[in-house]
Amino acid sequence: MMGPVDLTSGKTMMANGPDALHLYVAEKFEAAMDRKIPQMEVRYHNLSVTANVAVTGEITAKSELPTVFNTIKRSLAKFAWNKRVVHKEIIKNASGVFKPGTITLLLGQPGSGKTSLMRVLAGQFPKSGNVKIEGNVTYNGVPRDEIGKVLPQYSAYVTQFDKHFPTLTVQETLEFAYAVCGGGMSKHTEEMLSHGAPEQNAEALETARKYFENFPDLVIEQLGLQICRDTIIGSNMLRGVSGGERKRVTTGEMEFGMKYMTLMDEISTGLDSAATFDIITTQRSIAKNLHKTIVIALLQPAPEVFDLFDDVMVLNHGEIIYHGPRDQAVPYFETLGFKCPPRRDAADFLLDLGTKMQLKYQVGLPPGMSRHPRLANEFSEHWRQSPLYDKLVRDIEAPCDPNLLKDVEEHMDRMPEFRQGFWESTKAVTKRQWKLTSRNKSFIKSRALMTVAMGLIYGSVFYQTDPTDVQMIIGVLFQAAMFMSLGQTAQVPTIDAAREVFYKQRSANFYRAASFAIANSLALIPQAIAEALIFWFIGVLDDWPCPSCRTFHHLLDIPGPNQPRVCVVVLLLDCYLSKFQCR
Q1: Is the dihedral of CA 370, 348, 291, 19 positive or negative?
Q2: How far apart are alpha carbons 28 and 3 in whole angstroms?
Q3: How far is CA 437 from CA 308, 430, 441, 442, 496, in A?
Q4: Which value, in Å, is the radius of gyration of the alpha carbons in the chain?
Q5: The pTM is what?
Q6: What is the C-alpha to C-alpha distance for residues 261 and 297, in angstroms, rounded to an integer?
Q7: How far apart are CA 565 and CA 559, in angstroms?
Q8: What Cα–Cα distance (Å) separates residue 154 from each residue in 9, 41, 181, 416?
Q9: Is 120 buried (19+), middle (13-18) or exposed (0-12) by CB count in 10 A?
Q10: CB neighbours of residue 375 within 10 Å
């Protein structure tokens, strides 16, 4: 029985280390639930991912440079007659099991298929006509196709790319993720914690309330982001946090929500060994005490980090050449005639197999082998003939644990596609979008100056125009609408960066696409109103007694072509074009 843990802040929760915290929370929760915390077992059998890729010519380093010529050339290449289609095998006939309560290391050279495998298991692999996914994937016995829309609510996928809004702080980024992933304790959690004795239920509810209330602070503490919590994330053009801190924000963003499985892709890029060790130690504690299924892809982990994992999977050119206990990986390859030198890291040794670097590890041939395996398919063939693979197949074909089936019935089947309702999530996204818009000060200032200047020009050119001159009125409308709509092109870089963040967060079921679109429109309305009013008051007016009376009158009396009414139309057009320009 664990002693009490102070849950008033992230710092006090982590005072005795992650194991003490997670064990304490697990004991309180499981006592009130009268069973273990919900778990997820992932099985995949004969999983293959293939794609038909169009090749139009030889790819060189020079042709991949982001120049205007290369961009135009790649765009036109889509319509080339001499292009040929290449059948690319990304994942080849993979089979395996990820069990709850375990932490698995996924090793492989760049291009080996690590990211594709993790995205398929997370339900975030892009689907298109030229991509084909075959094989069976189940989650607690439920096929992937049956829970595809709600799968992101059970599994978190941490991408290897750091896509964030640069003007938001670390705290704001994590608090937004916390809000859209459910925020505090849900009603479903309250129902879960009501099956024990009254005292146990009360203690568990109080523990859950404090735990979820301070969860953003806990994530910041676990990832070592305390010193930069109020620093903007930044980008290549805006100074903010360091690359390693940005990588940790990417990891922390997907820590929210009651996820049963976590898939992390290259989370150690830009981190030192100590930071990586602390993060993996925390993830190991979560797996062991909260019974989560955790899979982490790393490139060349340090020996002390490698030793934290239970299982290891080695991928090479889309082929699984090993998937089993970590401490049996090196002995297994010794049976194939490969010896790891005493001063060579086990992870580096495993990564070198299947490449030209394996020659220095080759020793005498084992009995029954004519030569050492060299290609990925040869290693995979030996793996399928091993006793470890036979055990893996038995685990895949075994009946699903009744407790896991109960988790499906009581928890997974009741999970909504989004944690928040439509209007609640729209409010959260709108609040964030207004904050982003208000912090883009350079755009606001330049846009205001340009609007005033153009308004003065239009006001002087069309000064005292005859309101019955239809051709002149159409000219006013055209010029004003053209200026306001084309002025939105300055937002292209911002919208392009926001699109990448939207794709990531929508794939994780943070919010609906409609919420994002509405939020972007609402955030631009104040700017559109201000620009229209500047045009209104600068000179495109009738001889009415006062500007406010003229404004109110023409807002109520739209029919009939004269200049104030033109400004109302311009206002509506600007709102419309601000939403759809460059989308």
Answers
A1: positive
A2: 11
A3: 44, 10, 8, 11, 14
A4: 29
A5: 0.84
A6: 14
A7: 8
A8: 26, 11, 11, 11
A9: buried
A10: 12
User: H/E element holding 133?
Assistant: strand 131-139
Say how far apart CA 397 and CA 228 lie, in whole Å: 48
Tokens of 80: 């080339």
Query: How far is it, in rounded angstroms, from Cα 570 to Cα 578?
Result: 12
In a 10 Å sphere around its CB, with 0-12 CB exposed, 13-18 middle and 19+ buried, how is residue 413 labelled? exposed
Which residues lie below 8 Å from residue 359, measured CB to CB, with a gap of 6+? none
The DSSP bridge pattern shows strands 319-325 and 131-139 to be: unpaired
**DSSP one-letter string for 184-251:** S--HHHHHHT-SS-HHHHHHHHHHHHHHHHTHHHHHHHHTT-GGGTTSB---SSS--S-HHHHHHHHH
Helices (H) and strands (E) in the chain, counts: 23, 10
DSSP 3: P
DSSP 485-538: HHGGGGGHHHHHHHHHHHHHHHHTTSS-HHHHHHHHHHHHHHHHHHHHHHHHHH
Each residue's pLDDT expressed in tens, for the chain with a length of 583 residues: 567 888 899 999 999 999 999 999 999 999 999 889 999 999 999 999 998 877 666 666 566 677 778 778 777 766 665 667 788 889 999 999 999 999 999 999 998 999 999 999 998 888 777 888 999 999 999 998 888 888 998 899 999 999 999 999 999 999 999 999 988 778 888 888 888 899 999 999 999 999 999 999 999 999 999 999 999 999 888 899 999 999 999 999 999 988 899 999 999 888 888 999 999 999 999 999 999 999 999 988 999 999 999 999 999 999 999 999 999 999 999 999 999 998 899 999 999 998 888 988 988 888 878 888 899 999 999 999 999 999 999 999 999 999 999 988 888 887 888 988 899 999 999 999 999 988 888 888 888 888 788 777 777 777 777 777 778 778 777 877 777 777 777 777 777 778 899 999 999 999 999 999 999 888 888 877 877 777 666 554 444 444 444 443 444 344 444 444 444 444 444 544 444 443 3
Residue type, 407: D
Q: Which residue has the tokens 């993979």?
A: 94
Per the structure block, which two tokens stand in for 65? Answer: 């440079």
Phi/psi at 151 (5° precision): -55, -40
Provide the 10 A C-beta neighbour count for residue 415: 15
At residue 72, the 3 state secondary structure works out as: helix
Distance CA 562, CA 500 (A): 43
Residues in CB range of 440: below 8 A, 6 or more apart: 167, 494
Q: What is the distance, to the nearest Å, from the Cα of residue 218 to the centroid of all Cα atoms in its chain? A: 20
Tokens standing for residue 18: 């992650």
Q: How far apart are CA 91 and CA 89, in angstroms?
A: 6
Residue 255 near residue 214, CB atoms below 8 Å: no
Strand pairing of 131-139 and 42-55? antiparallel
Beta-ladder partners of 316: 319
